[in-house]
Amino acid sequence: MDERFNPFAIAQQQLDRVAEKLGLDPALHELLRWPMQEIQVTLPVRMDNGSTQIFHAFRVQYNTARGPAKGGIRWHPQETIDTVRALAAWMTWKTAVVDIPLGGGKGGIVCNPKELSESEKERLARAYIRALARSLGVTKDIPAPDVYTTPQIMAWMMDEYEKIMGESHPGVITGKPIALGGSQGRGDATARGAVYVAREAAAAYGMELKGQSMAVMGFGNVGKFAALLGEEILGLKLVAASDSRGGVYNPGGIDARALADYKLRNGVLKGFPGAETLTNQELLELEVTILFPAALENVIVKENAPRLRCKICCELANGPTTPEADAILNDRGILVIPDFLANAGGVTVSYFEQVQNACNLYWELQEVQWRLDKKMTSAFQSVLTMSRDHKVSLREAAYLVAVARVAEACRLRGWV
Length: 416
Ligand code: NAD
Description:
- 45% of the residues lie in helices and 17% in strands.
- Strand 6, helix 7 and strand 7 form a beta-alpha-beta unit.
- The strands form two sheets. A seven-stranded mixed β-sheet has the order 9-8-7-6-10-11-12, with helices on both faces. Strands 1-2-4-3-5 form a five-stranded mixed β-sheet.
- The longest helix has 26 residues, at 365-390.
- By secondary structure, the chain is of the alpha/beta class.
- The relative contact order is 0.14.
- The radius of gyration is 20 Å and the shape is globular.
- Among the domains are: 36-167, 3-Layer(aba) Sandwich (Rossmann fold); 189-337, NAD(P)-binding Rossmann-like Domain (Rossmann fold), CATH 3.40.50.
- Helix 12 (345-359) crosses helix 13 (365-390).
- It is built from 14 helices and twelve strands.
- Bound molecules: nicotinamide-adenine-dinucleotide (NAD).
- Residues 145-148, 190, 217-223, 242-244, 280, 294-296, 316-318, 343, 346 line the site of nicotinamide-adenine-dinucleotide.
């Protein structure tokens, strides 16, 4: 992999910059540059046609100073250990920036879920848990969904874990269906958290959002809700959205609900009535008030950063902007709300899910949303204050807040 696009090299570079600013001592800096534990497993899975396919899979427990590791499991054909390491590092900073008592972890299986039947997915999910069960648990590491994993996959995983342990452990995994101990409000939590943060950012920088435009790259779990809640809470107008097969555009506005229904019925966005088609590249370069990159890493790079025309780039995906591109956006006055702050709503409600599972007492939707708003608003305000006090970007400020918290926990434990 080209090191410029290696997400883990990027995560390390981002840390290196703040380590210097925070004056971290060299041992602590080195500790935070690497996962504390990583596990690689090889999974034989029986396919529907009777053959056996071998899948490679990972779990990285990056840092557990502030609590058990926490992070999603991604199923993707291009998954690599370095992607999982980077995502686990970002989870560490994410749980710290929203100040929840968890560390950072991440998992991945190299596979193409689009080519797997439901029963093959179930066998793969169960195989992953059988291989990793001893390293997982509410006091060790709590997985959740990520790209191409769903509440149903979480349900199979929880069931397999409980079978192995011989007792009930709903809190071992979050993002479960509500009928199995999932939390109200988890479905749209990532996007909702981002919308709350965008609301705070617009107020802080004196920007009007009502009636203004938004574009969403990656109309999946997170992107779809960003469009719906951007409309509902911020009064934004959706003008473009895309998925892996391309996008649709209508400067006059696209009804986000109708687009979501169309995607559900047809599996793609292309062909949505009343909209032109456009490529993912074209979408990124549209003149809009808010751009929500909500697909994968490294889509905003030094080549296209000079052409972006959004006012706010609210990073829902993890790692959508390379460091070179980030510097260009900063110089051009585009307000970037960094990924691990913008998309922390998902892990925050996952944490609420775990708390409810532990108490065996469940909250109303309004309570979940109220608590989420409080957490996200407070996280944004800490980052904003840091950014103003130190005259740095929101990304650097978010790193300063988060890394200082993790570093303090490592010191208090006497690790360094
Ligand atoms: P998802 O699988 O539901 O959706 C991903 C979407 O991106 C799909 O519509 C897919 O078609 C599209 N896509 C894939 N490749 C693309 C490409 N090259 N160009 C344009 N679109 C492409 O996944 P998700 O859960 O919505 O996750 C999206 C991003 O948000 C990921 O970076 C993930 O790590 C991050 N994230 C997710 C959560 C969560 O709660 N699900 C939380 C925090 C961060």
